[in-house]
Amino acid sequence: MSTKMVLLGKVKVLPVEEIxxxxxxxxLVVDVRRNFQNSNGDxxxxxxxxxxxxxxxxxxxxxxxxxxxxxIIGRYEVHDGRIILFGEQVDLIR
Length: 94
Known about the structure:
Elements: E1 5-20, E2 23-37, E3 43-52, H1 54-63, E4 69-79, E5 82-92
């Protein structure tokens, strides 16, 4: 069975290279607005880190700007009780 995730949000931090599970990857930070209001009638958001493969990260780092809308399709894995997000397809929304 496959795990799948879809995120639509705004770029908060441009991709930064990191080592994860012994592999060099890039981490992109995205601000994702929840699609429901809280008790005060406001929309809250979650800041999520998404690991990207080098090819995807190298492509988008040259064209991406902070605050830009982005659509990410990928998967998630659980490591040591933490959910880790991996972006496999990234589309800029312009």
